[in-house]
């Protein structure tokens, strides 16, 4: 009986998380800015992994920038760390998910950085497996090993995040190109207006003298008109 209840509850949780993931992916597809993406991902990661904290990390040359977070208490938001000492850097370098059940027994952890925090366990997922551009970290205050299902949810979130970032980048590039086209169009219009004005002035003179020459003009007036034209 207990096994049945446990399976039933587990099935409901899985269905709930799957539906949540669908909604998150839809929201990410509608993002217009990187800030919008980060705001969604930081809370979505915590929700999907049922963790006590989550961070959004971007790669900046040889540094890992912990851009934002959603956590029980402050972690690393706004800070930069060398990629070669960070778990996020290791995840980006390998392109693989890193699961750490106990940070105090794992040599990859810069323990002095983590000691002031609540973190006991963590999971770091790269954004893109090839040429990663960032990572999503999730953290637990109690010892916890991220389950295969939690890892799959986080990888799906990371994949959707990658696509959303690419879409925002393309939209930004398109907007810049449209602005350039508009600017060139304005320059062309201004040039044509100036050209029209410059052509119209001498043409008015020519037309005026032509009209005079068509009338009964003296020889001197004809000569003067020809010299001006």
CATH superfamily assignment of the largest domain?
GAF domain
Helix coverage percent: 55-70%
Percent strand: 15-25%
Q: Mind summarizing the main beta sheet? A: 6 strands, antiparallel
Overall domain count: 2
Radius of gyration: 33 Å
| CATH topological fold name of the largest domain | Beta-Lactamase
CATH architecture of the largest domain, please? 2-Layer Sandwich
Shape designation: elongated
> What is the name of the CATH class of the largest domain?
Alpha Beta
Number of strands: 6
Structural class: alpha+beta
**Low-confidence segments:** 1-10
Mean pLDDT: 83
Put simply, the count of helices is 6
Strand order, largest beta sheet: 3-2-1-6-5-4
Give the end-to-end Cα distance, rounded to a whole number of Å: 108 Å
List the helices and strands in order.
HHEEEHEHEEHH
């Amino acid at each position: 009986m207990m096994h049945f209840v446990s399976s039933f509850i587990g099935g409901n949780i899985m269905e709930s998380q799957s539906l949540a993931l669908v909604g998150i992916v839809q929201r990410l597809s509608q993002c217009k800015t990187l800030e919008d993406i980060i705001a969604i991902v930081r809370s979505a990661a915590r929700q999907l992994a049922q963790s006590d904290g989550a961070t959004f990390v971007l790669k900046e040359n040889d540094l890992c920038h912990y851009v934002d977070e959603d956590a029980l208490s402050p972690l690393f938001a706004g800070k930069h760390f060398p990629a070669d000492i960070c778990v996020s850097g290791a995840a980006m370098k390998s392109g693989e998910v890193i699961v750490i059940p106990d940070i105090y027994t794992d040599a990859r952890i810069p323990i002095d950085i983590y000691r002031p925090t609540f973190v006991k366990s963590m999971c770091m997922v790269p954004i893109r497996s090839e040429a990663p551009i960032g990572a999503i970290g999730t953290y637990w205050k109690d010892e916890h090993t991220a389950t295969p299902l939690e890892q799959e949810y986080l990888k799906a979130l990371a994949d959707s995040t990658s696509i959303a970032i690419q879409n925002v980048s393309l939209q930004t590039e398109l907007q810049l190109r449209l602005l350039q086209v508009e600017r060139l169009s304005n320059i062309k219009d201004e040039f044509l207006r100036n050209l029209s004005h410059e052509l119209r002035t001498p043409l008015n003179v020519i037309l005026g003298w032509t009209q005079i020459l068509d009338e009964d003009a003296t020889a001197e007036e004809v000569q003067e008109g020809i010299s001006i034209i």
